[in-house]
Amino acid sequence: MSEDPRRDPPGPGTAGPEPDETPDRLADTVRVRAERHRRWREEGEPAIAHRLAQIGVLGWIVVTPILIGLFLGRWLDRAAGTGLTFAGALLMVGAGLGAWSAWKWMNHA
User: Fold this and answer.
1) Ramachandran sector of residue 74 (left: φ over 0; alpha: ψ -120 to 50; beta: rest)
2) What one-character DSSP code corresponds to residue 13?
3) Structural domain span for residue 103
């Protein structure tokens, strides 16, 4: 044993998180991947139309918040007479929201 207690491995009597108390993200990820692999073996590759539909949905998930932000920003700019201030800001907000929504959708699918 070394003199520095930080370098010693924790022993059986040391306090630490119980295995049941903390979620095991690695085990959850392995379970999800195993389930996906099992489904892939049973169902096979999805049809090309299914893949194209997913790409289309993903595009609309990104584009819709951008367009809403742009139209709302242009309306606010016209009402306030501020040039492109609101349009630019809400365009960026829409792009961020669209990217976040797409990321969430891809991780869920």
Assistant:
1) alpha
2) T
3) 48-108
Asked if the structure places residue 9 within a domain, the reply is no
pTM: 0.61
48-77 pLDDT tens trace: 898 899 999 999 999 999 999 999 999 999
Closest CA to 98 of 70, 44, 59: 59
* Residue that has been written with the tokens 């792009």 in this structure: 95
Q: How many separate domains does the chain show?
A: 1
In a domain, 37, yes or no: no
Which amino acid appears at position 40 of this protein? W
Cα gap 8→2, rounded to integer Å: 7
CA-CA distances (angstroms) from residue 101 to 1, 5, 53? 51, 46, 17
Per the domain annotation, does 33 fall within a domain? no
Grouping H, G, I as helix, E, B as strand and the rest as coil, residue 109 is coil
Termini Cα distance of the chain: 50
62 lies in some domain: yes
